[in-house]
Amino acid sequence: MAAEEFRVIDGLYYTKEHLWIKADGDDAVIGITDYGQHQLGDVVYVELPETGSQVEAGEKVASVESVKAAIDIFSPLTGKVLSVNEDLKEDPSLVNTDPYGEGWLYEIQMSDPSELEDLMTSDDYRAYITELEEEEE
User: What region holds the Lipoyl-binding domain (predicted)?
Assistant: First the structure.
């Protein structure tokens, strides 16, 4: 699949680990990108952080199992977990079917919103996945 076939939403932040971050004031919602979920394949289980827990940027906060692989999710931001997507317990495939909507993972209250500056913009992320696709060819 060509990189341009994957949805990348403008106005979000992205990581090289294929997470998207939607910031709103001091709060941010985090999920797996369209490209990331495609690489994983069909998601069968998601383990999420505890609501109210404090997480550090770079710390393991969740894990996702698919038919192809099991991966750890490392928080792109430091802060307090405000909520988790409880729907994923019943239907982990939401990560695949609606990665930027119903398939979100967790919401965090950022301790340091300046950490967003270390993340990629949508244009940066598009260029990054294009590079990855070219390397695979």
Answer: 27-109
